[in-house]
């Protein structure tokens, strides 16, 4: 990997800067922080489990379910990330898209920043200086989210404590309802795009519902652990067949 002493404003050799040792060091640092955080959270969960009536077996199943459920959504991110390697370079894709940001936000932020200079993302006018601007726009946007989390988390914690004093059952319902609402908003937002999006949305919802009912009927918890991944793969297959019909 070669890192030029000075960024050439007119050079379109993006990978000379995008794959520089400096950015690789930053990417590795972010990975190490996330691994450390994951270890801390897992240890904290194991310590807190007995206090809320969860056994170590239930904790293990929860970890397994989380790991398996993460595989399905990661497939879409990986496919998009591979396509963006030549535009942003490996370190930026790993950090901004693979770990922290969302594909839609990062590409939109980069495109807006690049277009503001009159250049085109990935086009012949996409120079090293323009790449630096795109990377800065993505990073600053992600930083604001992190700052907002630091500021809002204590406030939300106070609200959580206040609601628990009024009615402890409320905080058992609100998080689940909020999660369902968030995913419904994301899903419904895709429906107007095309009938294929409707097929993907509807088939995945039906498959997920059937898997949950099956898991309850046959009393097999492992079906719930694999349900999200199975629903994603089967809905992708159904959507693919629908496009060929």
Write up this protein.
The chain is mainly alpha-helical. It has 2 domains: 1-165, no CATH class; 167-245, no CATH class. Helices cover 80% and strands 0% of the residues. The chain contains 9 helices and no strands. Mean pLDDT is 80; it is low at 1-5.
- Arithmetic mean pLDDT: 80
**Residue fraction in strands:** under 5%
Structural class: mainly alpha
Into which percent range does the helicity of residues fall?
over 70%
Low-confidence stretches: 1-5
Largest sheet: none
Number of helices: 9
Give me the strand/helix succession. Answer: HHHHHHHHH
Number of structural domains: 2
Quaternary form = single chain
Shape verdict = globular
Radius of gyration: 22 Å
Distance between the ends: 47 Å
Top keywords for this entry?
0% strand, mainly alpha, 9 helices, 245 residues
Question: TL;DR?
Answer:
The protein has 245 residues and is an all-alpha fold. Helix content is 80%, strand content 0%. The protein has 9 helices and no strands.
Give the arrangement of secondary structure elements:
Blueprint: H1 14-18, H2 21-48, H3 56-88, H4 90-100, H5 103-115, H6 128-166, H7 170-188, H8 195-218, H9 221-244
Helix pairs in contact: 2-4, 3-4, 3-9, 5-6, 8-9
């Amino acid at each position: 990997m070669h890192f030029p002493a000075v960024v050439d404003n007119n050079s379109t050799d993006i990978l000379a800067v995008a794959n520089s040792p400096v950015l690789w060091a930053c990417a590795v640092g972010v990975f190490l922080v996330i691994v450390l955080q994951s270890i801390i959270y897992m240890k904290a969960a194991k310590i807190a489990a007995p206090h809320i009536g969860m056994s170590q077996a239930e904790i293990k199943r929860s970890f397994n379910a989380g790991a398996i459920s993460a595989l399905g959504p990661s497939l879409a991110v990986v496919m998009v990330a591979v396509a963006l390697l030549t535009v942003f370079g490996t370190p930026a894709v790993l950090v901004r898209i693979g770990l922290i940001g969302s594909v839609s936000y990062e590409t939109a932020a980069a495109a807006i920043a690049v277009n503001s200079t009159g250049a085109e993302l990935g086009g012949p006018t996409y120079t090293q200086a323009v790449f630096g601007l795109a990377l800065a726009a993505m990073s600053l946007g992600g930083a604001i989210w992190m700052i907002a989390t630091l500021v809002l988390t204590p406030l939300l914690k106070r609200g959580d404590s206040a609601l628990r004093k009024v009615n402890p059952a409320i905080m058992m319902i609100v998080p689940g309802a909020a999660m369902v609402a968030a995913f419904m908003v994301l899903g419904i937002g895709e429906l107007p795009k095309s009938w294929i999006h409707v097929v993907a949305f509807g088939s995945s919802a039906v498959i997920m519902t059937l898997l949950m009912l099956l898991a309850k009927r046959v009393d097999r918890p492992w079906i719930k652990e694999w349900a999200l991944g199975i629903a994603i793969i089967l809905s992708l297959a159904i959507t693919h067949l629908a496009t060929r019909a």
